[in-house]
Design brief:
The complex is a heterodimer. Chain A has a domain of 105 residues. Chain A is built from three helices and eight strands, in the order ααββββββββα. Helices cover 30% and strands 29% of the residues of chain A. Chain A is extended, with a radius of gyration of 26 Å. The longest helix of chain A has 24 residues. In chain A, strand 3 and strand 4 form a beta hairpin. Chain A is an alpha/beta fold. Chain A has an eight-stranded mixed beta sheet with strand order 7-1-4-3-2-6-5-8, with no helix packed on it. By secondary structure, chain B is mainly alpha-helical. Chain B has one domain. Helix content of chain B is 88%, strand content 0%. In chain B, helix 5 runs antiparallel to helix 7, helix 5 crosses helix 8 and helix 9 packs antiparallel against helix 10. Chain B starts with a helix and ends with a helix. The relative contact order of chain B is 0.16. Classes of the chains: A alpha/beta, B mainly alpha. The interface between A and B is medium-sized, with 22 and 33 residues.
Amino acid sequence: MESTPARELGAGMFVLLGFAALFFLATQTTNIESYINEDGYLVTATFEDVAGLKERAPVTMAGVTIGRVEKIEFDPDGLNAVVTMRIGPKFNRIPDDSDASILTAGLLGSKYVGIGPGGSETYLAANSRIELTQSAIVLENIIGKLLFRFGTESDHATSSTDAGPSE
Amino acid sequence: MAAPEAGTIGQAGRRLGAAVRKLGAVAFFLMAMLRALPYAMRRPALVWRQVHNAGVLSLVIIMTSGFFVGMVIGLQGYDAFSRLRQEDLLGAGAALTLLKELGPVVTALLFAGRAGTALTAEIGLMRATDQLSAMEVMAVDPMGRIAVPRFLGGVISVPLLTAVFSSIGILGAYFVGVQLMGVDNGAFWSQMQEYVESEDVWEGVLKSAVFGVAASLVAVFEGYTSERTAEGVGLATTRTVVITSVLVLILDYMITAFLL
């Protein structure tokens, strides 16, 4: 097997093709630019319960992703969770009385932070805090409450229809 | 009754001893190749020729297999996801399957069959016809001249072949899922980008790099140490395929367990 120009060209093309394929995989299959941007500004919010919220979860406003959750910490003084969010530099005109709530994508989907706009004329600055927050809705708690309600209702139901015809 | 038992145990012991000795021989072989590495690095043309042999000549089988593996993932994935009413997740499922598992593993298995056997047979025949000894007589290091370029050619080729395989496979899944079965084009790609992390891509690259080293090492070692007979070369070629296949599957589990 001699090393001819044609074969060298083939080997070179092969390496290029391989790296092109790798580039395709690295850029097209993953959503790479959404979290590698280190610019933007940090905003914190305190929640009573962040159940299921993860770092890098999207921060949305009107359903559009404007940032990512940077870190989630426990505040030992207030006994609640402090969520630090990095908002993209383009979104620098968010009213400072906006509220943050932890929402769920779909019924059982992943948790994300939704920011509802306020009406203030001044905007959120870097390292400021969102005061109005609403915690995550924990599905188990709601189901528990519902079951409890159904349980008490059906007790009434069975006692009143005891004499009724059964199948 | 006791005598054949002792014989069996003795035989098993000898076999175990031989296996452990072979493991040690592989380690020494690897060290000898590392020592001969500078020789091959000064002659990149030798390495590129082997990249051509191992990589370029494997491209057709890799691309064909990748496309059909991707197509069958598209078909099976569509069937499975449609039972859950989640057809939109097909892109994510296909990409994760190909990037993390099927791409590296199937590429390594195909490489062992297409290129590994060729390496073993070539080096084994050189050994059988005393070409390697002749090189030593001429003060040419057969390790640096023959073994290392072939090893490096495989090590370079396998990750690149794996990337080609996974890419073509995703296109195959796209072709069947979106074009034939009617999954939404936007959902296919956006769900893929939603669920595939860059760590998943790197896991595939790491696996393919490890498999490339393992497959190339086995192929070159088996050829270099094959018996100097026609039968010996044939046996060494068979061993290359068997050992590489089992090794790749074992390594695959171990790497996955480490990374998850």
